[in-house]
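Hi Y.,

Following your request, here is the sequence exactly as I used it, all 160 residues.
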Amino acid sequence: MMNVTLICVGNLKEKYFKDACAEYTKRLGVFCKFNIVEVNEEKLPDKPSQSDIDNTIKKEGERIIAKIPKGAMIFAMCIEGTLISSEQLADKIQTAGLDGKSELVFIIGGSWGLSDEVKRISNARISMSKMTFPHQLARVLLCEQIYRAFQINSNGKYHK
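Below is the corresponding structure, written out as tokens. Let me know if you'd prefer a different format.
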């Protein structure tokens, strides 16, 4: 069974986001071992300098990298990534499995984005949309899309 890990910076605060992620985690249990790993978000002053921001991105990136399983296929969610369809995500997941990858990792960075090092070690950079979403909502959307991808790959009725 494939292991799929979603690494996120920060914690979910609202119950409805937690409930949504829990529901998709439960649904994904049929297809894979799905795990959400949260790493601490750096605290910044109200008006951070560029140096503060750069330091935050670096520290959060180090925390993310420490949580990535060895040999994992890594998908970095970032604004400059490639826009893909649900079917294309399903294909990426299926291809990874066919290539013998049993560990997939999806990464959502903090509000200032992902470090260059996280992007460098990633196998793919994916953009969810040209729109901007709160990180908590992005997590729910990504959980849903991962579930949808597994449904597509199993010819499930969920995806229409």
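The chain has a mean pLDDT of 95.

Thanks again,
Q.
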